[in-house]
Amino acid sequence: MGLLQIGLTLTTTATGLALHKSISIIASLGSLAILLLLVLVILILNRGIKLCNSKERDISANHGPEYSSALPLKRFNPKDLENATGFFSYDSIIGASSLSTVYKGQMEDDQFVAIKRLNLQQFSVNTDKIFKREAKILCQMRHRNLVKVLGYAWESGKMKALVLEYMENGNLDGIIHDKGKDESVISRWTLSERVRVFISIASALDYLHSGYDFPIVHCELKPSNILLDRDWEAHVSDFGTARILGLHLQDGSTLSSSAALQGTLGYMAPEFAYMRKVTTKADVFSFGVIVMEFLTKRRPTGL
User: pLDDT tens digits for 41-54?
Assistant: First the structure.
């Protein structure tokens, strides 16, 4: 009889623990769902306001604080970029991927810029024909939450580079996972500040997907591609690489597969990982992963 009572007690305890764990998981998921719903409502309201305004004014007069007028395409001399980066020295590197290396540069007028030098091995000779055209399109993309493309440099067979606005406070990956940040930086990331970042990213995606003449799919949205300016405002970077690779249909709505554009494990939508075809929904999947990562401070791969 004593053994039976012990068994019943253990069973009751295990059941209670399992129930408690289930409640905790449900509560966490519920909180996340409410947060995502809040972000969605804000975006819907924001878009509704923009649609109302567009009926009253011409698009060119409706750029307000969220948009800025497009600058003319500037072609930089490759030698100027070499001088700005110490001939693309290792010490100037601030980011790298299989497709490109990003350098911090200081131009002759003392302006700091980020210079994204494309890896020519990943870009076929055919892309020479479309590089200038796509660089011109990227220069026309003007939204407060996109990193501005200031110009380009091109020398056939030697260099393809984009000159970008420089962001003083690094990227979101460093904010989430760098344990060496000082307390003042860590403590500033309250829930409301994180939600502000989510709204900024979502606003930039909304512009890429539906604010231009055709949809632009990012394909590589992840924390390291979310940059922060001196005021800690979030800006989406590295957009348009797929278009430079020529991976788009005429309407820009669907991208085809490419060995060069691999995506990053943990942020890829399942249909991109397995079918190698994506639509704008792939970026929405990546956005959801970033939200989870910033809230939990855990990488999607568990590493």
Answer: 555 555 554 544 44
